[in-house]
Amino acid sequence: MEQRLGTATLLDGTAIRFAVVGSGPFALYVPGWVSHLELGWAIPAERLFYEGLSSGRTLVRYDRPGCGLSEATDRSDLVELELQVIRAVAAAAGMDAFDLIGASLGAPLAARFAARHPESVNRLVLYGGWVQGDELAAPAVRHHVLGLVDQHWGFASDVLTEIFAPDADAGFRATFSTYQRESASSATARRLLATCYEIDVSEDLGRIRAQTTVIHRADDRAAPLAEGKRLADGIAGATLKVLPGRTHVPFAGDAEGLVNEIRAGLGLPRLQRTARRTLTPRQVQVAALVAQGLSNRQIAEELVLTERSAESHVERIRLRLGFRSRAQIAAWYVASYPQADVRYFHG
């Protein structure tokens, strides 16, 4: 399964990149606070999560302005901008009506879109969301975290990873910390985090008409369960599913259980386990050297190969894993081999 990239253009000319994978009726995934279509596809846990959602659905994901592959914008009305992004991506992907999935910040954003565009949303699934952002943390905590992201983005990404995925292994934590920094600048990350704290969809919930499933982990450290319950209580006929765990990131923790609950909300059957993609021992060696930032020539020297052979190994890895860049290979290696001493991705 490989994702196909496309581009939607906003009225002001901003290019929004989106990815399509799978087949069947459309489902649009509204991401959490930051995202990167290519690097996310390279992280094994994240890719398995999306592949699980795309079995029986044509899954469409996007990077919002200033994140991942999409162009930046100077606009400050980020919530209204997001609604325009969703409409633009839907139009570019050929979607008239679709299922809508929102995770983390994507949950209140998806709720607002469903309230304002009921004709476009068939089913609505909200994971790890909230009604009022100012309920996520005390004012002093919000001020401290925003300042940390603004002034010390590297350290802040490590801190946020501990909050978002406290039970993840070392490889995932290292990868996800870097993933956040690769996905957005500190300025963009701060604006989006401020939006998390500022958004309030309490007046939108009563206008949602789509069949809705709200899913929340019981001890989520980033978004309290009480906010998930408020989402479900405010939407007529909504079903609340509470899962065990304290991890906020959807593809960490018991991701398989979450995938199946989302699938149930979309009217899909449970997913059978699938084998993870593997590389040969030699390909793993080459991937490790790619993650260290070595060129094909340097890899050839390290492994006593011809440069052409090294290039061929890299190309086979890329095709085997369905990747487009060396950065994706590096991200895959760091996430797959947590014991490796590789701290960052290389382009």
TrEMBL record:
Chain segments annotated as coiled-coil in the UniProt record: none
Domain HTH luxR-type: 272-337
Gene Ontology molecular function: hydrolase activity
Entries under Pfam families matching the protein: Abhydrolase_6, GerE
UniProt keyword terms in alphabetical order: Hydrolase
InterPro entries xrefs: AB_hydrolase, AB_hydrolase_1, AB_hydrolase_fold, Sig_transdc_resp-reg_C-effctor, Tscrpt_reg_LuxR_C, WH-like_DNA-bd_sf
SUPFAM superfamilies in the record: alpha/beta-Hydrolases (SSF53474), C-terminal effector domain of the bipartite response regulators (SSF46894)
Keyword field contains Glycoprotein: no
Hydrolase in keyword set: yes
Name of the molecule in the record: Alpha/beta fold hydrolase
